Amino acid sequence: MVLIEADIKDDILTVSVPDRQSISVDLKKIVQNNQIRRAMLHDQLKTDGYDCGDEIGNLIAEFLGLQKKRNLRLLYFRDELYTERDLPSSPRYWHNPVPMITDKAAYQDLSAYMVCNQGSVDELNKWLSAENPPTSIEARNFRPTILVEGVQAWDEDRWLDVRIGEAEFVCYRPCTRCILTTVHLDDGEFDSNMQPLKKLRELRLAPEGKMRDRFQNNPIFGVNMALKKPGRIRVGDEVLIRYKPTPF
């Protein structure tokens, strides 16, 4: 699925896959059609979505080779729709005091917003270049909502509050990583040496104690955030940080 591209401009969603014609739909019309389907996500929690139609569903199913096995649908979530999913914080997420929040979610895995630090990507690539065989990754391997540049590696371990442009966020959980980080971005295949996950498990497991008990063998890379104040953000905006006393 890493090869599937989606773009939204002026409420027009365009979905593209390699070697096939792109398909566009008007999201305003999708909402007006009011064809609502219910998805079952983590822990069997239900979330509704507007069905984006047969064309896009069939395009994705054919690209994934599932057209004869499953009736795939692409769903569009809006705030007025039903969801059972919320993302409460936990005292086990950090050794520092954790902000007590409950963030609403649609189809995201761990949070509505996840920020990565380019400095940490660069540092990880230094480690990976010394492996046998050497390899490298991009920030896109970690699928961040927001990528921050200009700070030292692992600076994000101490972030508490983040302001970007007009928007304000609260950091409440380190982002734990899984096998999807090992997918090659150019062909969608898994890395045969399990990188960068293997290296991250050597160097970026949670500290011993309640955090290790909570996250176990899942390494940390990036920060999950909740929105405190909505606002417009732009590429190149200044980022203001309020720090925790210590990392994690």
TrEMBL record:
One of its GO terms (molecular function) is pyridoxal phosphate binding. It comes from the Eukaryota. Residues 69-242 form the MOSC domain. PANTHER family: METAL-SULFUR CLUSTER BIOSYNTHESIS PROTEINS YUAD-RELATED, MOSC DOMAIN-CONTAINING PROTEIN. This is MOSC domain-containing protein. The lineage of its organism: Eukaryota, Metazoa, Ecdysozoa, Nematoda, Chromadorea.
